[in-house]
TrEMBL record:
The keyword Heme does not apply. It comes from the Bacteria. One of its GO terms (molecular function) is ligase activity. Keywords: ATP-binding, Ligase, Nucleotide-binding. PROSITE patterns: ATP_GRASP. It comes from Fundicoccus ignavus. Pfam families: ATP-grasp_4 (PF13535). This is ATP-grasp domain-containing protein. PANTHER family: ATP-GRASP ENZYME FSQD, FUMIPYRROLE BIOSYNTHESIS PROTEIN C. InterPro entries: ATP-dep_AA_Ligase (IPR052032), ATP-grasp (IPR011761), ATP_grasp_subdomain_1 (IPR013815). Residues 92-282 form the ATP-grasp domain.
Amino acid sequence: MNVLGIGDGVYDELSQELKQSLTEYYRVDSMDDYQQMYRAVAYFAFKYGKIDRIESHNEHWLETDARLRTDFNVLGFKSQDMNQIKRKSSMKAVFNAVGVPAARGRVFKDFEDAQRLVKELGYPVVIKPDSGVGANDTWKVNNADDLEAFWNQKQENISYIMEEFIAGTIHSYDGLTDQNGHIVFSSSYVYNQGVLDAVSANSSFFYYIRRDIPEELEEMGRKIVKAFALKERFFHIEFFLREDGSYMALEINFRPPGGAGVEMFNYANDIDIYQEYANIVQHNQFTADVTRPYYCGYISRKSGRDFKHDNEAVRAHCGDQLMKLIEVPEAFVPVLGRNGYVVRAKEKAELLDMLAYIDA
């Protein structure tokens, strides 16, 4: 198998691990310049023959991936599929169609339409781009003044969706499908707060992989995966766990979880999910034995706060249960913090104790 890379980073600055995994690397000046990306794929196709897969596993590049697949006739989502997999309003329609509850709301046309909609939904509401990632440009609107402030500061030529505010914690259903659309790996994260809260409050952000997946959550997740006909693909579906104990779908991301999420799959299961994904692509086989022997958690440390325990103390306290200490890339610092810590334990109480120690 030839693994071919395209990026705007200098080759000498790539990690040694990445260099060893690539057959060849093609550098472009800007990955946002589609013509440069097209020429890179055309060069690889001329040199190596027909391209079998094009994947970034990154939300930002989903549309570029699809456009390249369309132009080079490569298996996977094409440009015509983007409306359904990028727009939250389209996701909501699919959730409702398969009987999975979702927050009430819709895209609104103008300020008058927004006023009519908020009367129907009631304050507070959440407003965000219909096509967007994470908490970017997301507003919690508590009253008429907030609504007017949003309207005066919103981006032009962007479609926004307004939804009722749902009180609850965020739980996810994650996994990987094979070439036939069967789920061959699944997992679930529990978050202490949403991305919007983590950014606005500048507070510690933590999440963990649970050892068991609640039956209702898994049933809903499987319905959604089937409805979108996902094949040979990672997915990350977010739900609200409401105060009454029921789940409500928030959105689906057609890529792996961000941050340290993929490596946490490995730590929680003692598997190599990277190799298993390669096995699916090349042979349509998933060979790992998934028993979920560990809880695995991530916690951030935000800048501007003094912590009781330095890194050496954390290492001493957690021992070999500290799996990784991460210096977070600048772009993700507002959400994930300046430093991140990945820990695992067989018992939930032990995991939470380590997370609390790091956060003290």
